[in-house]
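Entry 12.
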Amino acid sequence: MAVTVAWGLYAVLTARSRRVKALIVRTLQRWTINPLIRLLLSIGINPLGLAILETRGRVSGQPRRTPVGNGRTGDTFWIIAEHGAQAGYVRNIQRDPRVRLRMGWRFRWVPGIAEILPDDDALARQRRLIRWHPLRAFNAMNVRVLGTDLLTVRVQLLTGPQPTSPAPAEKRDQRELKPVQRDSGPHSAAAPKKCSSNR
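Predicted 3D structure (tokens):
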């Protein structure tokens, strides 16, 4: 009974104000849903076919990790942001598009470059992603119920070998410049002797 009343109150409030809905959902996700999901994923339990998105905080510069639906298709990872440009990780991506995703059976980190696609049809994209994927369909249902302004984010995964960072110029120059050694053999030129004048 209490759950029914809570959902009814939620429906009335969110129907009247999108801002109120976003506030309720983000508070619930921040303090209840996301911590629980992060805990499950950290111990290797992934019941909903989710992934972890890591961005850099736009203010702090520290890693920020958010559970997202697993929308991987080949070397591309699709995310449907529930709250559009107001989502914290979307604003982080606007500041720094370099991200990491932890996903798959081995649950390994994969780097990528994120791009926000405001002109993409997020609902149509979501329907294509959940086709023949029951876990994705369940996550998509939650996104539609809890979401306020759906937005598509595309991440190009960098699955190939990553180039190593070049050595600093000073160290590289020091390695390239070798000390010149004088030849002490018989063909070396003798230094001229200084002659004193006899008076």
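Annotation: The CA atoms of residues 53 and 66 lie 5 Å apart. The radius of gyration is 30 Å.
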